[in-house]
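If you are new to this repository, start here. Below is one unmodified record pulled from the training split, so you can see the exact layout before writing a loader.
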Amino acid sequence: MLDAIAGYDPKDPITAASYRRIPESYTAFLQPNGLRGMRFGVIRQPMDRQTDTNAADFKEVRAMIDRVVGILKSRGAEIVDPVEIPNLLALLQGSGATPNTNIYETEQAINGYLAQHPDAPVRTFRAIVESPFLIEARRRALIYAVGHVPTEPGFPLQRLNQEALRTEVLKMMADNHLDAFLYATFDRAPTKLPHTTLGNNRQLAPVLGFPALAVPGGFSSDGLPLGFEFLGMPFSEGTLFKAAYDFEQSTKIRRPPAFTPALPK
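And here is the target side for that same chain:
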């Protein structure tokens, strides 16, 4: 899939940064011994202010990360554990990592997209937010962006925080000679819908604009899946595939839910 969608798209000028940086095929990175000689830094700092480090499922997630680290070492990887990114939580919050702060580009971008589709059932971002078909949890997340534009004074400050965070992350990689970071996708086990799982660490990669790949890492005491992410430098998708493929193939951790029907044939 990535072979098909990666690369420069004239309709999305920022993708020009990928020019001459796309491999012939990402499948070349699916190597059985890909982890051998790779070097990872483990981020154990919570990235969500609501993370409860005393919760039982937080400790389960940390135990999962410990097991993952052990597997990586057994596959020939080198580990720096932990790595501490200065001011990580504050920089994330200042970079628009939450729905009530990532607000400046959303309405303008979605309105611009919808303008290209005159037959769309809605014509504006505001119409989406006000739609009776939108579930309430999504409405609460999106409503902060209504009425905001990129020319507001808060947007450049947010961009400065993003650049500061990128610099700290790249510096940590350079200082420790890392190929990638790894951290828990969530610091808590999955919760029953409609509640949101606490301890969300997924915001790091989108704020940075760096590639990340989520990998199954184990199961909670309730049998629910726990995962972790590999995060790399810009255009290091191949490196992440190499690490994740070796981990996946050597562990076979993922299993379908018991109620999943068998596939035909």
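Two things worth knowing about this chain: The mean pLDDT is 94. The CA atoms of residues 215 and 228 lie 5 Å apart.
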